[in-house]
Design brief:
homodimer; 198 residues; alpha/beta; Helicase, Ruva Protein, domain 3; Dna Topoisomerase Vi A Subunit, Chain: A, domain 2; 2 domains; 4-stranded parallel beta sheet; two-stranded antiparallel ribbon; 7 helices; 6 strands; globular; binds zinc ion; zinc ion binding (chains A, B)
C-alpha cells in the first residue's frame, strides 16, 4: 500500500480530470492533504454544492444553477442574436472576450462521422425551433475552424435556410499577434481570401 | 461574467492545485460539470470524507485516517529501522518502490535558510526522541540529493550522534536506465566516488 485506501480512492477520482495524470493527481491530493482546512474542505464543499445545483439551461444548453442560465435570464442581453457554439467552454471563451451581447445556443459537440454524433444529439432541432419561435435577426456560427466544426456549420446553415434568418460565422484569418512565419498554410490562405481594403 | 459565481468559485479553488493553472482548472471543472453524476458528486464526497478524517500520524508524521498511520499500525513492519523522508510524497515514492519494510519518520520539509525553516519546524526533535525511546538499530536518511536535503541529512546525523544509532543514507549514482550522456556532472562524480568492484 502507499496511502490509505480512502486517499487512494480520492487520487483515482482526481486522476480522471483532464490535465491530471496519476502522478499529478497524487501531487494535487498531497497539497490538499496539507491544506485540509484552508483548501480541501472548501473545495469539497464547493464541488458538492455545484454538483447538486448545476443544470443545463432549458433554453440555450449553457450550464447554470437554475432553469434559465444567467445569460438567458439577463434582460440586458439582446434577444435577436443567437451565437451558436459547440461547447460550454466555447461560450465561456466568447464571454471572456466580452464582445458579444446577445444570447447563445450550445450544441453540445460537433457533427462527427467518426464518433457517430448526428444532428439530433446536438440540439440542432432545438436551435431551429428557437429561431422560429424567438424573433431572431441573426445566427452567428462560432464553431471551430476544423473539419467537424465547418461540417456542422454547413449543416446548421442548411437547416436554418427555410427560416430566412441571417446566418454569419466568425471570420477566419491571422490571429491578433500572429506571425505569418508560424501560421499554417490554411490560415494564410483563408486570410488572403478574406482580405480587406485598407 | 462567464460562469455563474458558484462555478467561478469552484474554478478558483481548483486553480490553487499544483499543476492546474486557471485555464486547466476551467477545463477540469467543465469536465466535472459534464459528468456531475458519475464523477463530480463522488469526487466531492471522497474529498469531503478525506478532509474530515485525514490526520498526521502521531508517531511518524505520515498522513492517515486514524491516530496511527497504516504503516505505524501494521505489526508486520519492522520497528528497528526508521527511514527519514522530507515529505509524505517521498514516503509514498519509497512505498511504491516496495523495497523498505521498516517504519518512517516524515520531517515535513528540509532545513532551509532561504525559507527560514529550522530544526524545530521539521520534527527533528521528535525523531531524536523516537530513536531514544524505540529500540532503533538504524536510521536511513532518504533525503533529496539537493543542497537543502544534504544540509538536513548532516544536521540529523549530528543530532543523532549521541544516541549511537547506525545512520545511513540512500546511495547516490547513475539511476537505473540512466544514460551517462544525459547525466549531470555531479551525478557522474558521485557515481565514480561510490564505484564498486564487479
Ligand atoms: Zn441559457
Ligand atoms: Zn505513522
Amino acid at each position: 500500500m502507499t496511502a490509505p485506501s480512502d486517499i487512494e480512492d480520492l487520487i483515482g477520482l482526481m486522476a480522471r480530470l483532464p490535465g491530471l495524470g496519476p502522478r499529478s493527481a497524487r501531487r494535487a491530493v498531497l497539497t490538499l492533504l496539507k491544506k485540509r482546512g484552508p483548501l480541501m474542505a472548501p473545495l469539497a464543499q464547493a464541488m458538492a454544492h455545484v454538483a447538486l445545483t448545476a443544470r443545463d439551461c432549458a433554453t440555450c444548453g449553457n450550464i447554470g444553477t437554475s432553469d434559465l442560465c444567467p445569460i438567458c435570464a439577463d434582460p440586458k442581453r439582446q434577444t435577436g442574436e443567437i451565437c451558436v457554439v459547440a461547447d460550454v467552454a466555447d461560450l465561456w471563451a466568447m464571454e471572456r472576450a466580452g464582445v458579444f451581447r446577445g444570447r447563445y445556443h450550445v450544441l453540445g459537440g460537433t457533427l462527427s462521422a467518426l464518433d457517430g454524433t448526428g444532428p439530433d444529439e446536438l440540439r440542432i432541432p432545438a436551435l431551429v425551433a428557437r429561431v422560429r419561435d424567438e424573433a431572431t435577426a441573426e445566427v452567428i456560427l462560432a464553431l471551430n475552424a476544423t473539419v467537424d466544426g465547418q461540417t456542422t456549420a454547413h449543416y446548421i446553415a442548411d437547416a436554418l435556410e427555410p427560416t430566412g434568418v441571417r446566418i454569419t460565422s466568425l471570420a477566419q484569418g491571422v490571429p491578433v499577434g500572429g506571425e505569418l512565419d508560424y501560421l499554417d498554410d490554411g490560415t494564410i490562405g483563408a486570410a488572403l481570401r478574406a482580405r480587406r481594403q485598407v
